[in-house]
Amino acid sequence: MTDLAQEALLPRDEIDRDYTARLTATPEEFTRIIDRYASESAAARRLPGTRLDLPYAGEGGPCLDLFGTAPGAARPLFVFIHGGYWRALSKNESAFMAPMLAEHGIATAAIDYSLAPAAGMTRIVGELREALAWLWHNAESLGIDRNRIVVGGSSAGGHLAAMLLSPGWQKQHDLPEDAVAGALPVSGLFELAPIAASHVQEWMQLTEQEVADFSPLRHLPAGGRVTLAMAERETAGFHRQSRVYAKALAGAGVSVRLLEIPDRNHFDVILTLLDPQSTLSRALLELFGD
Question: Stretch 141-157: mean pLDDT, rounded?
Answer without folding.
Answer: 97
